[in-house]
Amino acid sequence: MIEASIIFFDIDGTLLTQDKELPLSTKKAIFKLKELGHEIAIATGRAPFMFENLRKELQINTFVSYNGQYVVLNGKLLYANPLKISALEKLTEAALISNHPVVFMDHEDMKANVPSHPYIKESIDTLKIDLFPTHDPYYYKGREIYQTILFCQEGEEKQYQQEFQDFDFVRWHPVSVDVLPRGGSKAKGIEKIVEKLGFVKERQYAFGDGLNDIEMLTSVKNSVAMGNAEDNVKATARYVTKSVEDNGILHGLQMLGLIK
Questions:
Q1: Which of 111, 124, 174, 229 is the most buried if burial means most Cβ atoms within 10 Å?
Q2: Domain interval for residue 140
Q3: Which of 181, 199, 229 is the last residue of a domain?
Q4: In the chain, how many domains are there?
Q5: Cβ–Cβ < 8 Å for 180, 69
Q6: Tens of pLDDT along the chain (260 residues)?
């Protein structure tokens, strides 16, 4: 009998192709893992409402979202780490002066502090989701915000990094940066789940491809970088599989001996 493991999958560039499609080989592999008794989880920078359809399609109820700030185990909230509101308010004021819009995100919705901006459309469109932030400049008041997107050109986030020590800034698009609580990461979210479920390090696996996967790939013992990942991401993983477009998930799982 195969000993049960837990496998965490990033979404964009890992489960989904560049065109945001789920390869059939990946879907079949996920269900084969479940059939064998393994625990399957998602670890993503996305908000929970941005991958609800994917969770339903793959029947996955455990996930690390917002790069570790909102963690759900078997459909129930396990851990939440919101942004510091007083610092977020100051960041928003500073961003307005520089004409850098922001989008506030909680576990249910996202709202922009400006009515419209080309940077917001340009980057959100790449996610190919049926959602778009509407305007509410005070959405952060009276609720927990787990992530904020700051829209600025590459390099322009440095002014904020120096001033706002409560936050980490992770770029995911040429005009978009995720703003997260300092020290938060997918690795921390994964830690909460494996502690609760009791999986030893040898039975933990993770697949990813992006800069926001580096901590996860470094901390999870059996880490796999996708073939489409950048070299600096591949360097942090224990294994490298084929690209997502080339049945990379299936190949990686076979390489690890998790499925035949």
A1: 229
A2: 85-181
A3: 181
A4: 2
A5: yes
A6: 458 999 999 999 999 999 999 999 999 999 999 999 999 999 999 999 999 999 999 999 999 999 999 999 999 999 999 999 999 999 999 999 999 999 999 999 999 999 999 999 999 998 888 889 999 999 999 999 999 999 999 999 999 999 999 999 988 899 999 999 999 899 999 999 999 999 999 999 999 999 889 999 999 999 999 999 999 999 999 999 999 999 999 999 999 999 99
Whether residue 105 contacts residue 124, with contact meaning beta carbons closer than 8 Å, is answered with no
In the numeric block, the tokens 């996860």 are attached to 216
CA 208 to CA 216: how far, in whole Å? 8
User: Cα(5)–Cα(33) distance, rounded to whole angstroms?
Assistant: 9
Q: Angle at Cα 183 formed by Cα 179 and Cα 184, nearest 5°? A: 65
Closest CA to 249 of 55, 2, 66, 42: 42
Does the active-site annotation cover 166? no
Domain assignment of residue 1, yes or no: no
DSSP letters of 8-53?
EE-TBTTTB-TTS---HHHHHHHHHHHHTT-EEEEE-SS-GGGSHH
Q: Which of 10, 12, 106, 209 is catalytic?
A: 10
Query: Residues in the chain, how many?
Result: 260
Residue that terminates a domain, selected from 181, 208, 229: 181
